[in-house]
Structures are given as structure tokens and as C-alpha cells.
Batch of 4 targets.
Target 1
Amino acid sequence: HPTKPFITSSLQMEGIRKLGLSARNTMRIAQKLYEEGLITYMRTDSPNLSKEAVNGARASVEKLYGKDYLSDKPRNYSAKQKGAQEAHEAIRPAGSEFKHPDEIGMDGKEKALYELIWKRTLACQMKEATKANMSIKINADDCEFTANGSRIVFPGFLRVYVEGSDDPDKAL
């Protein structure tokens, strides 16, 4: 299943893991993206997306990957922890039509962070990935050999976003 849209802490963690940024630099760059009108407010505990955001993400998925990659119905998310500050929606590209990362007029770490937010927002509205798993056991005398493997039957959201990996194509 796809991961929830970004909240402040998950954005910081992925900024550290995928982009090599500190939490502070992640938030500094996010602030700049927010001031440029490219993303929504970046201090939030809510993974919830507005109807506008869900429609924007689904339209982008359909345009770029086709209807086969859309989840059957829109996904809605909510915070699990009590007392979460849910005054703002999840961190996502601003507006009802999401700008592709190549269209934002930035490069470097700013573009990389925007692209991370853009990809995760699209991925949360995509179909699940489907994998086929196989396990083989061979017994020879007193020894048992085991081999496990899996292959991706349908990539679904993995086509766009693989948590913990910088390159979805390589992960596929």
C-alpha cells in the first residue's frame, strides 16, 4: 500500500534519508517552496488531503500513468495520534493542478524536495503494488536449503514513489 502524504516529521525524515539534508535545512527549503506558492503549509501533523488535493493528484496520475494506476476510489487519511494538530492539510503541491517538478523553475535541493512532495502526493492516490512471492526448499541428506524470491506483477504506486529508495525504476 502507498504511504500517507507528508506531515512535518515524515518530510524531515525523508529529506534526511533521500536528500542528505538536515531536518533544519529540509524545513528551510520547504519554507521557501511555501513562500513561492509551490506547496501547502509545511508545519502539520495531519496526513489528510483536501478534496482539491485528491482531485489534483488523481488527475496527475491519470495524465502521466493512465487510469490503470489510479486507486479504485479516492484515499483519505487521518492522524493516528491523539492531540495531533490537524488545522492544516498534509504537505502537498499547492493548487488544484499540480505543477510537474520540471515546471517549477527551480533546481538543486529545492527541486529535489518539491519532487519528493509531488511524488508522495501522487503515490497516495495510486493502486497498490502486486508482488508474487516464491519459496523453494531443497533437502539433501541432513541439510535443508531455502531460497526466497519475489517479483513485481504490477508496480502500482511503486512506479512513482518507493519509500527509502531514491530511484523507483531501480527498485522495480
Target 2
Amino acid sequence: MIDLLPVSLYIHYPWCIRKCPYCDFNSYPKNKSVCTDESYLNALIIDFKQNINLISNRKFNAVYFGGGTPSLFSPKLMEKLMHEISPYCEENCEISMEANPGTVSLESLKDYRSLGVNRISLGVQSFDDRELKLLGRIHDSKAAIEACNNVIKAGFDNFNIDIMHGLPEQTTQKALADIKIATSLGCNHLSWYELTLEEDTYFGSHPPKLPNEDNLADIEEQGFVLLKELGFNRYEVSGYTKDRRCQNNLNYWFFYDYLGIGAGAHSKIKIGDKTCRRGNPQDPSSYIEEVKNKKNNFFEVKKSDLPFEFMLNRLRVFDETKYDEFENTTRLNFSTVKDKLEKAKDDGLLQFSDTGYALTDKGRWMLNDILELFL
């Protein structure tokens, strides 16, 4: 009998107050939507019911409301969705919700908490008003700090703050100031990552002036040191924690299973010895229509693509990768990747032990060089 992998659930809410100029996520301005939240909720529930059989006898170890801005989804509507999914959640299931500081109050946070949400991920990005304005955020630093305080007051003890660095003309001093403020506000997890200019965004076609490579390197080096001093352990490329890792993200990075519902959501489910994927239509109206027509667009991933997919995800996490993980999650023999891993070792990018392999310090900086071996 084949052992079943852990499984999580991702729920996508596709609307925001407005689209940020750097954002390439599947999101749309709320005031231009032709769909109602009620019609979207109904589609989510139907989609869930149509595909819940794929998780077999498992229960979700994590549920993640992402977006867009899920904190625009009213607690009253979210309650209906939670009623459907709760029976399929483990007792200690991590239930996360992304929130924008400009869209939550103490009362709404208390409402989400009462529904079972036990982890908040607050998209602050910066505590510098100039940077927030350049990033097109709808909140200022005062609202961001108030939202962080309200998360704690509402009873959340599992709390992530998103902070960007490498912002337009940002100095090292300002980047470190953002870290200091964020870590002083009660969060136990920090997502600290570099602003990148994506093609299909406003910044992609109208690039702002970003720090040069030397400045970026200085920001990262000093940021790594500061976070360590503040008690935040870096366990993956952009994830830092004082006590608890993000279980939802670990499901992705360890190449476990996940069911995604909502516009543009992706799924990866192991069915027998096959790895199957699905990507939902990105347009909310098209997604709702597809759900009504009961279309199921799962397809098998080519076995030749699995080594790259596994390494792309698993090497994000800095824990040692055990030798049996590749076989357990892909059902392919370790010999498929052994020679390429040894090449990365010879290049000083990986180190081997009796039980597995892990990135060297050089490998963390040159992760893409390892991944290219599997293309």
C-alpha cells in the first residue's frame, strides 16, 4: 500500500481595494468586479465538494486563505465556507488568512478568530510612509502599526508580517528599521523578501530606481545578522521564525499534496503513483462558470519534470533533505537525481551526510545554479 502524503487546502480570494504596481498575483480591483462575493462563495463550496474525494481518508494539516485580499471576505460569508471545510481539518490544523492593514479592524479580527482562523499574515511591506506610497499600498505606517497591535489584541499568537526590502532608493538603515519595527510588534514569524520587478506589472513596464547590487547585498547581509540577533531563525529562502514555521508553506516546499480552490488556484495531488496538477481559470467569472459546468482539469505531471519540480520546492527549505524524500514524494528512484546532486556537491553547493544532503552557504546564494542542473 502506498503511503499518503500530508495534504493542505488553499483558498484564493481574487479581489483587492486596488492593484499594487509590483503585484503579479491573480488579483483584481474590487470596484471593477462583475461577480458578487456570494456567487464566488457558492463556487468555492461547489469546487470543494467536487474534489474533496481526492484527499482520500486524510485531513488537512493547514488551510490558507490567500489573495488578493481575503480580509475583504466578510466573516459572515467565510463562516459558511468554514462550516464546509472544518470536518476535514485535523484537530490542530493551522488556518491562516492574509490580511491588508487597511482592511481589518479589531472587531473583524476577533470575528475571524472566532471562526477558527488561528494565524494571520499581515501584508505590511514597509513602515516607511514614502515607501508605502511608492508601493501603492492603501495604508500608512500608523495604520500598519495599529493593525499589528489589533492582531495581538484579538488573541492571535501565530502572526506573520510581510516585509519587503530592496525598495526604490532604499538605504540599508531604512531596511533594517523596518525589521526592527516589525519584530517589536509581537509577530513570531517574518516573511522578509526582496522586491522584484515582474514583467506583467506596472513596475515591470515603468521600473522605479532600485538599490544597486552592492547596496542589495549589504541590506541582505546586515538583515540576516539582525534577524538572528532578534531571535528569528531563517528556515527557508524568505521565512524567519521565533517558534513556529508556516505549515502551509512547508506543504508546498516538502512537495506534499495540496488542493487549491478559487480563481487561479493550483492543486497538486498524488493519485496512486501519479503526480497530478490542476490550475483553475484566473478570471473569477470564468472560474465560476467552469465550476458550474463541473469541469475537472487535473493532468498527470510528466515523470521527466518531477526531479526539477521536487528540487525547486524542497531546496527552498534549509533543513537537510533526507535521501528517501525524493522517492517518497515522486515515486521515482533516487538514482534519477543522484549524479546531478553529486555534481552540485563537487561545485561546493551541497554537502552530504549519512542521512541526506543540504545547501552549503555558497549553495544558498547560488540556488539557481543547482536548479539549472535539473532542467
Target 3
Amino acid sequence: YLSTMDSIWITAVMTLVHMTDWSLESLKKLKKTVDKYIKSGTKESDGKDKTLKITFKSAREFAAFQKVLRKLDDATKHNHTEVLSTSLFTHLFSTYDAFIGNLIKAIYEKNPELFKSITREISLSDLLEFDDLHTVKMSILDKEIETFRRDSYVDQFHTLEKKFGIKSLRNFPEWPKFVELSQRRNILIHNGGQVSDQYIHVCEREGYQFNNKPQIGEYRRIDMDYLSEATRVLSKVGVMLSFTLWMKIFPKETEK
């Protein structure tokens, strides 16, 4: 888990800086070509408006100039670094989701008594499809984990507290930040990054304090500092959750 988190951050460091430099260099080259034509033009005025008149030697030269303008327009519209940083940020949560699912499965497999707490029904026809009881249990556990993953991250912590009898699972300094990260992940995936009323409400309810409270409809982006903080917080949450659950359920292994 931590290795993958580190890999995501290293990928960001290696690619985002170079991509930014490449984008700026491309813009500079296009601008240099446009500036050459602007300098060769003559300014005209009709008393109200000022215009720049550029004379081209041929239709081919004019077509080449138009092509440069289109490229410049495209370059200012496309934000490659934003696409990549958002992808890497959401991948942090994909990694977290997979890890927590595997953690829960490992705990249940190590302590089969926990299966008795699952209240999920299965039809007789489905039951007859399985070869043995172990396969039935693992199939039911997979469905339980799948249901767990569909809940919000706040609800997931509530579920874990209730299931394993731990009241203080959310009592750590980064909890409000973790909630904000998860809510930003939601608006990036489902709302194109636009702030929603739910984003603000959940963050404030869970104790997150905005430096500058965003307005509904405002866009939230991912920069390098934010991605770095997200990597650190999600890494820490995964580790703390692992140790807390493991020591609660397998206290004899605490020292180990």
C-alpha cells in the first residue's frame, strides 16, 4: 500500500514538472511566431477603434499563420497538468479502497468467528452452486465488502467503529482533512470539480475549517502541494486503520 502511494507521488514529481515546462516552451514558440507577424503589421485608427493590419506575401503564408493561431488557442484551452494531477489524485483513493477491502478480508479470514456477524441472505438455488462452505463464506464476504465500499468514507468509518467496537476510530488530527480529501474526490469524479452544497456541509460537519470558504459552483483543482498532502494523509490513514483494527481483533499480536 505504502509503496503504491509513494509510486503515485514519484510519478507526479517526475511528470508534472516536465509537463509544465513542455507546455510553457510550446506556448513560447507559438507566441514567438505570432509576435513576428504582429511586429511587421501596421496600426490603423478610424478615430474610435484601433486595428492592426498584417500583410501576407501569399495565401500559403496566411494559411500557416492561421494554423499557428489555432495551435495557440488549443494550447491555452488544454490543461494537461490538470488532467494528470486529477488522475493521480483519484488513483490515491482507488489504491486506498483496494487496500481497505483487502484488510477487511484478511481480518475475516484470520478470525472466522467474525462471519457470524454478517446478516446477509442467500437463496437455496445460489447456495447449491457452491462446492463447499468456505466458498460460500468468501462469496458472502466479497458482497459485504462491495457494499461497504459503496458507502461514503465517513459512513465507512462509522461501520467499522460499530462492527469492531472501536469508538475512537475517527479521533486523529487528520480526520477533517481526510474528509475534505474524500469530498473533493467526489466532486471531481461526479461534478467536474465544481463545489456542491454537500461538499461544504460534510466538510464543516466533520470539523474541517476552510481558509477561504468556497462558493457553490466554484471549481476545486489539484496542485502539487495538495497532491503531496493527500498522499501523506491517505498513507497515514491506511497504516493507522490497519494497526488499530489488527490490535483490537488480535491483541496477542500487538507486540509483534
Target 4
Amino acid sequence: MSRISFSCRLLHPRLWASWLGMLVWWLCVQILPFRLQLWLGKKLGDLLLEKGSSRARIARANIEWCFPELEKELRADLLRDTLRATGMGVLESGAAWFWPNWRIRAHFCMKGLEHLQAARQGGKGVLFMGIHFTPIEIGAAFVNTVTPIDGFYRPHKNAVYEYVQAVGRIWRNPSSQVIPNGDVRGIVKSLRAGKTVNYAPDQDYGRKRSVFVPFFNVPAATVKAPAQLAKAGKAEVVPWVTRRLVNGQYEVEIYPAITEQLGLGEEQDALTINQFIEERVRECPEQYLWVHRRFKTRPKGEPLLYDN
């Protein structure tokens, strides 16, 4: 757990091209009108669909499994809108990492901050349970302009990208830190110190860390961590989401703590979390990260869902 320090190894000549790419990205984020950036994101999504990319195939499979009640044409519309939202999410990451605070705030409104404040009473830590809507990156950046949250970073094969991503997630607030993905001790330590740790449990992390419970009526490997971390860290679990609004703005909504609904066993806890997430996803399904292999890990004896 740290503030991320710059290493001289990042200046190695083989990384100069990566730094140049980041500079170009930074300039585009600062200079191009945001509506143009989002338009480019939509075009990126259209390209993914046109080229039949692996992400498009994953999203199509997820939508077919999760929305069997939809007619074929409606599923096709949802797939198109999903890929466009995913493309916008890529462009929004630049704004999340590089925009000044005032510009981030100008695009956002927040609901439910009182729920986070209530959970923190008495110095308690908060497991800030995010959901993988495509604007989650820019949403977390906005939250960090209002109140400090600790974030995660995954090791990346490109050291420059890893560094920029990690710094981009915390630089807005001097009280924020990053925790390497999988550092359970770091999470618990942060929670016990009364901090707020951003954690999104709605991805497939494999069989060992999960139990199988329904998500959109499909058995999904669902992590056991939220309830376990909350108990070990003596913390509250507070869900939140980021949504794009029709007026081109964004909304962060924070919900009341669900801690009291947990602690009923691994499967029941995972089901409670999946049901909450599913309710939010049904509110704006096109903004969910359907390009993730959510059902990659299957119960023993069941066929694989994805062809890649």
C-alpha cells in the first residue's frame, strides 16, 4: 500500500514510445472537446462490432445468456449500445487520469453521500463496493475529488501504463493510496485504519476464491471477499454506481450500507451481492461491462460458455 513512487527504470529507452503515446493521449484529452472524445469512443465500439472482435463475441454471449427473454433484434441493439459504452469508457479513462479536478466536477452530480458519511461514523472503514459499469473509472476519479478512496492497480506488462494508471487513480486526493490487486492484508489494514477502499466484486476471479450463485439466472463464480474483508477490517460495505445521463453528464449514486444483510454464509452473502448488482444492471444494462468473461469459470460438468 503506497502513494506510488517514480522509478528510474521507467526512463529506459525501450519505454520512450510508451511515454510518447501517453503524451499524445494527454494532449488529446486536454484539447479535444469531450463530446468529440465520446463520439470517438462510440466509433471504437462500432469498430469492435464490425470487426467481430473477441470482446464483441464475449458481450454477445453474455447478453444471450442473461437476456434470453429479449427478441433477437433487441439483443442486437443492446450489444451495439454495450460496445459503444465500452468504447466511451476507454476514452473516459483519459479524463479520469488527466483532467483537473474542476473539470471532472463540472460533469458530475452525486446522490447519497450521506450514506457513506453515516457508515464512517465512529471511525469505521468502508468497503466501497463498486459495480463495473463502463464509466466506473471516471466515476471513481470524481468521488476522489469529494472524499478520499483507496484504489487498486493490477500489474501490467507495460510499466508506463501501470504507473500512469496507478497514479491516475489517486493523485486527486493526498489521502488516497493504491493497493496492489490481491493484497488482502493491505485492504484489511486500510479498513481498520478507518479508510474507504474501492472494491468491485462483480468479476470472475476463479474457482478458489468463489462460490457459484446465480447472476441473471446463470451460475456465476462469485467472490467471497466482500463479507470476509468487512468482517476482518471491521468495516461497513457501501455500494455505489456511476451512470451516464442522457444530458451528457454523469451521476454517482451511493447506497445505504448492506453490511447487516451479510454474514449469513458464503453462498447467501454472494447471492445478496449478486442480486443487488443485477438490480442496478437492469436499470441501464447497456452501460454494464458485458465484454468481461463473467462466466468463464463454470461449475464442474458444465460446458464452457466462451469460444475464446
